[in-house]
Write a structure and sequence with these properties.
There is one protein chain. With 222 residues, the chain is an alpha+beta fold. It is built from 5 helices and 12 strands. A 6-stranded antiparallel β-barrel has the order 1-2-5-4-3-6. 28% of the residues are buried.
Length: 222
């Protein structure tokens, strides 16, 4: 599990794609790795949960499955691409962002960015199948960064980044660039619970007690 609070930046030193996926070497600050990462540990790399298969003083190696490459921005990455890094949570980790799994749901496209006073405003277009999970004032992970959605227009959503966030992350948010998106895990489970309840009602014709749109409305969730 991760929280979307970037701990360090990294640079892809090598990336070798093959029929089974890809192998990468990511260079980063020695202090990010020293006495903190062991072989087999998970490292969120631009929001993708990867297993460290080899460790060096200032770099780690990882393998990506074919599905991981196909469903994420790793298919676009080259040597020199900067990435956001975060180690997996421990029982003592502060939950500064939101709960993340490092399982990318889709690739978004940056539409525009502009300054409003000190802040950076960004519009991103999400894939059609993800729009139902994106809600105003909800959380979303973009390239492994936990961010708050400030506005939603169909598949497009707006984010606002404070200067500190911009300075600490690798993602530049240039218009046209691709970004990894992970929706709030609570939204996915909520949809599954509601779907299962609806299917049960349809099967036996009896109204079930449990999670419904009505109970969510009654309790102020929307």
């Amino acid at each position: 599990m991760f929280t979307g609070i970037v701990e360090s930046k990294g640079v892809i030193q090598t990336i070798e794609q093959n029929g089974k996926g890809a192998h990468i070497v990511v260079r980063t600050k020695p202090e990010f790795l020293k006495d903190r990462v062991r072989l087999g540990d998970s490292i969120a790399t631009n929001g993708v949960c990867l297993t460290a298969t080899a460790l060096h003083e200032d770099a780690y190696e990882a393998d990506l499955s074919f599905e991981s490459v196909d469903l994420t921005c790793f298919k676009y990455y080259t040597v020199g691409t900067e990435v956001n890094l975060e180690l997996a949570c421990t029982p003592h980790t502060r939950l500064g962002g939101h709960i993340m799994q490092g399982h990318v749901d889709g690739v978004g496209t940056v539409l525009q960015n502009y300054r409003v006073d000190e802040a950076l405003t960004i519009w991103i277009q999400a894939p059609e199948h993800l729009k139902r999970y994106i809600a105003m004032k909800g959380s979303i992970a973009v390239d492994g960064v936990s961010l708050t959605v400030n506005e939603v227009r169909d598949t497009d959503f707006r984010l606002t980044l404070i200067p500190h966030t911009v300075s600490e992350i690798a993602t530049s948010f240039r218009p046209g660039s691709k970004v990894n998106l992970e929706v709030d895990v609570l939204a996915r489970y909520l949809e599954r619970l509601m779907s299962a309840n609806a299917q049960d009602e349809k099967a036996d014709g009896q109204k079930k007690e449990g999670l419904t749109l009505e109970t969510l409305q009654q309790n102020g969730f929307f």
